[in-house]
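cron nightly-structures :: item 1 of 1
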Amino acid sequence: MKMQRAYTMVLVLLSLCAAIGKADQAAEIVPFGNVTLEMSLKPFKQVDDASIRATAAEAFRQWGPLLRHADRVSVLLWSSDGSEILDYRGSLDDPMEWAKYIGGANSKYAPGEGPESLSLHERPYLYMENPPVITYGTLRRIAEILS
């Protein structure tokens, strides 16, 4: 008897899912005017053009179910703390300080310094071993590829 109830419940659930699916297909989806996506530079673990393109493709693939309903897509890159604007000297080859850390931003310890026992709330840590060097040119290429 329990098996028959379980079987009946599964059929009811499948019927309900099918009904919801049909209703969803019948409903007109109103597109979004603009979807603004936010991301950091951390997904770009390698900065050659092929790797940047692969990372961008994967990001847009993951956002695909949302983006298919958008008239326009914007991407906001959280790249740094704003100091890159003041430090820029006109050379795209210059490295820039970027948000390659996790943890406390206002620590009395520099990244990688201080006792090992400190948590990420007490000092910043690199988000990965040997993060890539990001130059102003790298940031430009990432923006170009994303657009």
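cron nightly-structures :: done
Residues 1-20 have pLDDT under 50 and may be disordered.
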